[in-house]
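Quick one, C-alpha cells below. Sequence please?
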C-alpha cells in the first residue's frame, strides 16, 4: 500500500486543530485528576446534610466548559460546517479562551470575593456564549441546507445550551449583586410573581439541569454525524431515535426556560405523599436520554465502519440512562425511605450518595469519555492504540458503574467495597485517557505508517 499522504490528509493528521485538541485533553485530564482532591462522592459529599459549595461548583465549571468547547470544535468538522471559515475560527479561539480561563479561574475561585479568578471565569462564560452562538448559527444554517434530522438535533442542542448559559449569567449577576438594580431584578421578579431569591433559585436549577441535558443531546447528534451518514442510508430505528431526541431537547428547553423565568414549575407526576416523579425528569429522562439510547442502538446496527466505537457509545449511553433515569426514578418513587433531603430518613445517606454520584459520574465522566472516543475516531488515532484506549475507557467506566450502583443501593460506606471497585474502574479510565493522548501526540509520519499497517492487515484478512 502506498503510505504517502495528501496535503489535506496531513492537515488532518497534524493540523492546528489536532494540536489544540491534544492540549485541551491534557489540560482537562489534569483538571479531572485534580477534582479528586476537590470533591468526590466518597468524601465530603456522603453526608445527607451536605450542601453544594461555591468553590466546588466553580471548579467543575472549568471541566464542563472545556468539554463543551472540545465537542463544539469537533462538531465544526463533523458537520462539515465552513470548516476553515470565520465561524470555525470563532469556535477555535473561543474554545481556547474558555478552556484556559475557566480552568485556571476554577482552581483559584474559592469564594465570590475572589475578584481576579471570578472575572477570569466570567470572561470564560462570555467565550462560551460566543462558541454557542457561532455553533448554533452554523448548525441551523446547515440544517436548512441539508434537511437532515441529525443536524437539526445538533442545532437545537446547541441553542438549548446557549439558553442555559444565559440563565447562568443572570443567576451569577444576582448572586454577586442581589436585588440590584431593583427596577430590573426585583421589578422582573415581582412581575413574574416571585421574590428575587426565588427567581435566583429557579434560574440556578434550570441553568444546571438544561446545560447537562443539552450536552447529552449534542453528543448523540455528534456521534451519529461523526460517521458521515446520510438521511437515506439510516435505518428507520435510527431515524426514529433522532426524531425522538430532537423533540425531547425542544421540550426540555421549553420546560426549563419557562421554569427559569416564571412562577410555573414542572409538576410532580404520579404523586403519593412525598413520592412522585418530577415533570422535568420525565421530559429529560424519556425524551432525551432514552431517545439518545434508541438512536445509538440503531446506529450500532448500521453497516458502518468502527463497530467497536458504535457499541461503546451504546454502552456509555446505557450507563447514563441506568444511573440517572432508572436509579433516579426509583428513588423519587421511594422518597419516604430516601428522605428527599431529610437527613433523618432511613436511607438518607444513600439519597445523598446518589445526588453526587449521578452528577459526577453520569453528567461529567461518561460524556467526557464519549467525547474522547469521538475525538480519537475523527482525528485518526492509529487503530490499535484506539482499540486499547477504547477498551480501557469503556471497560473502566463500566467497572466504576458497578461500584457506583453498589455505593448507592448496597453499601454507602465512605471507603467500603464500592470505593475499591469504583477506584479500580477510574484507574483504567485514566490509563485509557493516557493512551488516547499518546495516540494524538504521535508525529504525522508515525501515524501514517501505523494506519497503513493496520489497513494492510485488514486487507490481508
Amino acid at each position: 500500500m502506498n503510505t504517502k499522504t495528501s496535503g489535506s490528509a496531513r492537515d488532518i493528521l497534524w493540523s492546528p486543530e489536532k494540536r489544540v485538541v491534544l492540549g485541551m485533553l491534557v489540560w482537562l485530564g489534569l483538571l479531572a485528576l485534580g477534582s479528586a482532591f476537590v470533591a468526590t462522592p466518597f468524601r465530603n459529599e456522603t453526608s445527607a446534610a451536605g450542601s453544594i459549595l461555591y468553590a466546588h461548583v466553580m471548579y467543575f465549571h472549568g471541566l464542563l466548559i472545556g468539554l463543551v468547547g472540545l465537542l463544539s470544535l469537533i462538531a465544526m468538522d463533523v458537520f462539515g460546517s465552513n470548516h476553515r471559515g470565520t465561524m470555525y475560527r470563532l469556535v477555535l479561539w473561543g474554545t481556547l479562551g474558555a478552556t484556559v480561563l475557566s480552568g485556571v479561574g476554577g482552581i483559584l475561585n474559592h469564594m465570590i470575593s475572589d475578584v481576579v479568578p471570578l472575572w477570569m471565569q466570567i470572561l470564560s462564560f462570555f467565550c462560551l456564549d460566543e462558541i454557542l452562538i457561532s455553533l448554533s448559527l452554523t448548525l441551523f444554517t446547515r440544517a436548512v441546507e441539508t434537511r437532515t434530522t441529525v443536524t437539526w438535533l445538533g442545532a437545537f442542542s446547541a441553542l438549548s445550551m446557549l439558553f442555559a448559559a444565559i440563565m447562568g449569567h443572570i443567576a451569577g449577576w444576582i448572586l454577586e449583586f442581589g436585588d440590584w438594580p431593583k427596577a430590573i431584578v426585583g421589578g422582573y421578579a415581582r412581575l413574574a410573581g416571585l421574590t428575587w431569591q426565588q427567581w435566583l433559585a429557579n434560574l440556578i436549577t434550570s441553568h444546571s439541569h438544561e446545560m447537562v441535558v443539552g450536552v447529552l443531546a449534542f453528543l448523540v447528534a455528534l456521534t451519529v454525524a461523526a460517521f458521515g451518514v446520510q438521511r437515506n442510508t439510516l435505518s428507520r430505528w435510527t431515524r426514529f431515535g433522532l426524531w425522538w431526541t430532537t423533540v425531547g431537547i425542544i421540550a426540555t428547553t421549553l420546560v426549563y426556560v419557562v421554569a427559569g423565568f416564571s412562577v410555573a414549575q414542572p409538576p410532580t407526576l404520579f404523586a403519593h405523599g412525598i413520592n412522585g416523579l418530577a415533570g422535568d425528569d420525565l421530559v429529560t429522562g424519556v425524551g432525551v436520554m432514552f431517545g439518545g439510547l434508541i438512536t445509538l442502538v440503531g446506529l450500532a446496527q448500521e453497516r458502518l465502519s468502527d463497530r467497536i466505537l458504535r457499541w461503546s457509545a451504546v454502552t456509555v449511553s446505557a450507563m447514563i440512562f441506568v444511573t440517572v433515569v432508572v436509579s433516579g426514578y426509583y428513588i423519587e418513587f421511594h422518597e419516604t425511605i430516601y428522605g428527599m433531603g431529610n437527613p433523618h430518613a432511613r436511607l438518607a445517606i444513600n439519597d445523598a450518595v446518589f445526588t453526587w454520584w449521578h452528577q459526577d459520574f453520569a453528567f461529567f465522566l461518561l460524556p467526557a469519555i464519549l467525547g474522547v472516543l469521538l475525538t480519537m475516531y475523527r482525528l485518526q488515532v492509529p487503530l490499535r492504540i484506539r482499540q486499547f484506549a477504547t477498551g480501557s475507557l469503556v471497560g473502566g467506566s463500566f467497572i466504576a458503574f458497578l461500584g457506583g450502583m453498589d455505593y448507592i443501593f448496597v453499601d454507602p460506606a465512605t471507603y467500603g467495597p464500592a470505593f475499591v471497585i469504583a477506584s479500580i474502574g477510574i484507574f483504567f479510565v485514566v490509563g485509557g485517557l493516557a493512551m488516547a493522548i499518546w495516540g494524538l501526540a504521535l508525529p504525522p509520519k508515525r501515524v501514517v505508517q501505523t494506519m497503513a499497517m493496520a489497513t494492510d492487515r485488514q486487507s490481508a484478512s
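The radius of gyration is 22 Å. Strands lie at 268-272, 275-278.
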